Amino acid sequence: MNVERHEFESSQPGTHLVILGGIHGNETCGPNALRKIISEFQSGQRRLLRGRCTIFPIANPRAYNAGTRYIEENLNRVFEVHTNPSSYERHLATEIAPWVSRADALLDIHSMQSQGDPFVFLNAPTPESQELCEALGTDWILQGWPNVYASMPELLACCTQTFADRYKIPNALVECGSHADPAADGVAYRAILGALTLYEMIKEGDAPSARDSRHLRMTDLHLRISEKDHFPKVWKNFEAFQKGEVLATRASGEEIRAERNGIMILPSPVSALGAEWFYTGHLLES
Ligand SMILES: [Zn+2]
After folding, report:
1. CATH class for the domain made up of 217-283
2. For residue 33, how far is its CA from the centre of ligand 1 (angstroms)?
């Protein structure tokens, strides 16, 4: 397999940043924003001041061409080097992952099914990853992902961030808004400029303005078990709820109620059976 890859290198030493778009084929903001950056570098309109930038604009090309999330399995659950890749996505992971393990930093660009504000996933909360997350210009930074999955390793064999953390590579995954949101391309583009500016790879002044991002911690994951599992309302991502409120109802009629005040995270009314349905969490004091 030969996944499209672009290399830009400065004569000045610096950070080697790897940027991934289209890990999920139906998420077009990463590919669109990366195409723009690639053409700016190629035309000489933008110059890389130091370091090296490796860009995979469409990490899952067949899913991208088909307009689907994946072909055989979720690339962001099998992102590591496989000795005997048993699926299309495992072949992709085996080709792309070594670039991440050799890099100095990783930016992975996504969009989401839910409506709501753009945000960044902070996986292992190291100071270096936190600094990268804060440079991307979103209002929200979400952490706690590894803990939520600790009891369900079968759901999260390896995502791009888990893989990067394994090699102590600072990393951020940005969710630029809902798949169809026309603003998502701009969010993705600004996030790229934010990362490049942080590492002094482009000149200052192009970065998104500094934000006082709010930090959220996700604590609980609920899986969708039946087609008849449903939400009592259309939840927005990061919508607040009160203790005792009905968050969702199982096919059996059993209500899932909030045990404390908190925040609804990534509600996905039509997720596949056995997959992530919604998460809950709370705001962290900053
Ligand atoms: Zn995605």
Report:
1. mainly beta
2. 15
How far is the centre of ligand 1, averaged over its atoms, from the C-alpha of 253 (Å)?
Answer: 31
Q: Return the CATH number of the domain spanning residue range 6-198.
A: 3.40.630.10
Question: Per-residue pLDDT tens for 124-173?
Answer: 999 999 999 999 999 999 999 888 888 777 666 689 999 999 999 999 99
pLDDT tens-place string over residues 206-223: 777 767 788 999 999 999
pTM: 0.91
Query: Which residues make up the CATH 3.40.630.10 domain(s) of the chain?
Result: 6-198
Compute, in angstroms, the gap from residue 10 CA to the centroid of ligand 1. Answer: 30
Q: Are 277 and 271 in contact (CB under 8 A)?
A: yes
Tell me how far the alpha carbon of residue 177 lies from the centroid of ligand 1, in angstroms: 11
CA of 27 to the centre of ligand 1 (A): 6
Q: Which residues contact 83 (CB under 8 A, 6 or more apart)?
A: none
**Torsional sign, CA 41, 184, 204, 56:** negative
Q: How far is the CA of 98 from the centre of ligand 1 (A)?
A: 20
Ligand 1 centroid – CA 247 distance (Å): 24
Q: What is the pLDDT of residues 228-267, one digit of tens each?
A: 999 999 998 899 999 999 999 999 999 999 999 999 998 9
Portions of the chain given CATH number 2.40.50.100: 217-283
Between the CA of 110 and the centroid of ligand 1 the distance, in Å, is 4
